[in-house]
Amino acid sequence: MHRHDASTEILTQAVIRYAVDRVRLDPPPLDGPHTVDDLRAMAGHTITERGIGGLEALRVFGDVLAPACISVDHPRFLSFVPAAPTEAAILFDLVVGASSVYAGSWMEGAGAVFAENEALRWIADLAGLPAEAGGVFVSGGTAGNLSALIAARWKWRHDAGGSHDRTRGLMIASSGAHSSVAQAGRAMDADVVTVPADADGRMHGEQLRATVAALEPADRERVFAVVATSGTTNVGVIDDLTGAADVADDLGVWFHVDGAYGGAALAAPSVRDKFVGVERADSFIVDPHKWLFAPFDCCALLYRDPRVAKAAHTQQAEYLDVLHDDDDWNPSDYAHHLSRRARGLPLWFSLATHGTQAYSDAVETTLRVAHEGAELIRASEHCELVVDPELSIVMFRRLGWTAAQYHEWSDAQLAAEESFVVATSWHGETVLRICLVNPLTTVDDIAAIVESLR
Ligand SMILES: *Cc1c(COP(=O)(O)O)cnc(C)c1O
Question: Distance, CA 175 to ligand 1 centroid (Å)?
């Protein structure tokens, strides 16, 4: 099983061929889900005592399983947050898998960790974080937010010298914040107080200040973090980061910025000024698997002062003691995890291959297509913009449609493999939302979708 023989060689060719062919598909089929019963009937028994052989397993994957997964990188996959990994990043993901790197510690993974940190440094520089800033790539924004907020609470308790060790913490976030912030609160058994966002879903400093002022004094003592979002997931607006940083300063608490989706636009000069204030963050996240063209799963988590994160997250165990002898950079110390894949390497390789200018250009392209698409919707008779797009999310309504009509249209589009666009809700109304992160999506793609809504 672990030997490389003639059959492994045949399998190697087949697997590499499959991967390269998939990367080359332009576009890939959109595909779509099947029921468990259908998949069972089509895939047959794959886990058997003797094995079905690699070529047969690959055939089942290619013929049955892969077509039952929607291609997130299809240019008309515009639901949720799509992905658009570069060819270089995807190909290097194969290399990362083949290299058996343990990227939790410097001792074991120094070379990989060094390269990951180069990519993190690029992001830290885009955000304007200081030279000492650093962090780690974690699985996604959910893990990034949780790890950052655990560090925030650790600092609050530490600074209180023990007096808050049994106090339930409280964080303040916008009503437009991602669901993972509330989820972090549940996981940490901490409270989340919500600041009402404005009509476009943006949190302003004054509202945040009013929310803080309305807290009971005992609750104000419990605040350990202010969370702002730089690119809300539903509509893509950026909170007033300077206002939020000011309030965090006044309270003397941690300032976390969730840029899982929108943080990538720091690379786009045309919108960079919307992010002013992010440089004051104590922690910041961005998901390269969203809009920085890396494959799943990849979230860059950065701390202004990584020592706090290290104090909060380092695991102590006898068998790990040899790793804590010196000042080595151990990625496992900076999040709620231990073993880890060098998941930042595909981003590093692609950045090294193409250079950062290509990233800026690609993000600018998606911004331009989103804005031109929005103009097209504005000019149409049957559709209407709900919010002017700030980044690359366009929210709009088909005039006169009920929720059922939206769902019917969306299902039919996917079944015909035309597009994948699902409805969302906005102030209680069912509307459509398209999210662009793929530079291969064109204005014509959006035009076709708008046309199909007639
Ligand atoms: C997508 C998103 C998350 C969650 O990221 P995952 O990678 O899906 O865990 C968190 N915050 C924001 C703003 C997001 O857009």
Answer: 15
Residue spans of the chain under pLDDT 50 = none
The CATH T-level fold of domain 356-452 is Aspartate Aminotransferase, domain 1 (3.90.1150)
Query: What is the Cβ-side half-sphere exposure of residue 397, based on CA atoms within 13 angstroms?
Result: 14
Say if residues 392 and 371 touch (Cβ distance below 8 Å): no
Q: Are strands 134-138 and 383-387 parallel, antiparallel or unpaired?
A: unpaired
Neighbours of 311 (CB within 10 A): 14
The architecture (CATH level 2) of 94-354 comes to: 3-Layer(aba) Sandwich (3.40)
What is the pairing mode between strands 429-435 and 383-387? Answer: unpaired
Element of type H or E holding 207: helix 205-213
Domain ranges of the chain: 6-30+33-69, 94-354, 356-452
Q: Which ligand 1 atom sits closest to the C-alpha of 299? A: 7
CA of 79 to the centre of ligand 1 (A): 14
Cα–Cα separations (whole angstroms), residue 399 to 47, 383, 434: 51, 6, 17
What's the pLDDT score for residue 320? Answer: 80
Cβ count within 10 A of residue 51: 11
Confidence (pLDDT) at 321: 78
pLDDT of residue 325: 60
pLDDT at 84: 98
Query: Largest Cα–Cα distance of the chain, in whole Å?
Result: 73
- Residues 161, 163, 167, 173: is their CA dihedral positive or negative? negative
Q: Return the DSSP state at 336.
A: S
